[in-house]
Amino acid sequence: MSAADLRASSTRMRHVVRLAGVVIGYSELEDASPGDGLAHGHFRPGIGYELVEPVFRLFAEAVPRRDGPVVDETKLERYHQSRDALGLTLEEADGTLVKTSGIHIADYASEQGADGRALEVLISDAGYWARRAARDGV
User: Fold this and answer.
1) Is the pLDDT of residue 3 over 50?
2) How many Å apart are CA 50 and CA 47, to the nearest integer?
3) How far apart are CA 138 and CA 132, in angstroms?
4) Per-residue pLDDT tens for 27-84?
5) Which H or E run contains 62?
6) Hey, what's the torsion of the CAs at 115, 121, 125, 131, to 10 degrees?
7) Domain limits of the chain?
8) How many CB atoms sit inside 10 A of residue 66's CB?
9) How far apart are CA 131 and CA 47, in angstroms?
10) Whole-angstrom Cα distance, residue 51 to residue 72?
């Protein structure tokens, strides 16, 4: 299976986003591009999401349409600084920590409802990609 095939695959394994041990939310990271080190999927908030929601809403205010232009550079800069300071972590369902270089929650739920949230992760963990490929039968 090529990277393009894996990108289109639908791996169904729960991933957990945490802040200092508190569950922020979950995603199956349904779509992946191993060559780019990127995985994304629908995001379901956990009990601790309210702790970080204002940070991710800053992004939605700075970029009001998914994949749209930036309308507020100041808010976008505040978002990046605040997000980077959070120290979010990503775990596989079995608790295995996944090394990431960026975790982003696109939170457009106010505008689009529950389906308006997505988790986007830059994964720099070669072991993760190998485990995922094995699960996908690659």
Assistant:
1) no
2) 7
3) 9
4) 999 999 999 999 999 999 999 999 999 999 999 999 887 777 888 999 999 999 999 9
5) helix 49-62
6) 10
7) 3-127
8) 12
9) 28
10) 23
